[in-house]
Amino acid sequence: xxxxxxxxxxxxxxxxxxxxxxxxxxxxxxxxxxxxxxxxxxxxxxxxxxxxxxxxxxxxxxxxxxxxxxxxxxxxxxxxxxxxxxxxxxxxxxxxxxxxxxxxxxxxxxxxxxxxxxxxxxxxxxxxxxxxxxxxxxxxxxxxxxxxxxxxxxxxxxxxxxxxxxxxxxxx
Length: 172
Hints:
Layout: H1 3-16, E1 27-30, E2 34-40, H2 52-85, E3 88-95, E4 98-102, H3 115-126, H4 133-147, H5 149-168
Parallel strand pairs: 2-3
Antiparallel strand pairs: 1-2, 3-4
Helix pairs in contact: 3-4
C-alpha cells in the first residue's frame, strides 16, 4: 500500500466519521486486505481512589457501549469505504489505556519454512506460547514489530521515497 493511498483513505475517514465519535483524529492503517480504523473516545470519569480493576472495567464498559451504540452507522460507513477502496473495514476503539479491535481480518499467508524455522514454531507451540504454527508465526511477527519498530519505520519511509522517485520518472 502506498503512502498516497494511506493518506487518501485516512482523509476520507477523517471527513466521513461523525465528530462526536472521537476526541482526536482517527488512527487509520491500510494493507492489501484491510482498513483498520481506531477511534479514541472520551475516557471515563475516574477518581484517584478507583482501583485498577474499576478503571479497567469502566473503560471496557465504555468501549462496549460505543461498539453497540454505533454499530449500524459504522456498518454503513464500512460499506461505503469497502465499495470505494475495495478492502474490508475493521473497527477499534481506545478508551484511556483500554484498546479493543473488532471483527478484524485474519488473512492467510503462504510461507515456505525450512526445518530449523519450523522447529522454532513447534517449540512455541509445545511450550504453550502459541496454539498452532500459525499462531506462533503471528507471535514472531508481532515480536519483530515491537522490537524493530524504528527499523520498520525507516524502511517504510525509504519505500515512500522510492515511490516518489518513480512518480517523477518518465511515464510508461
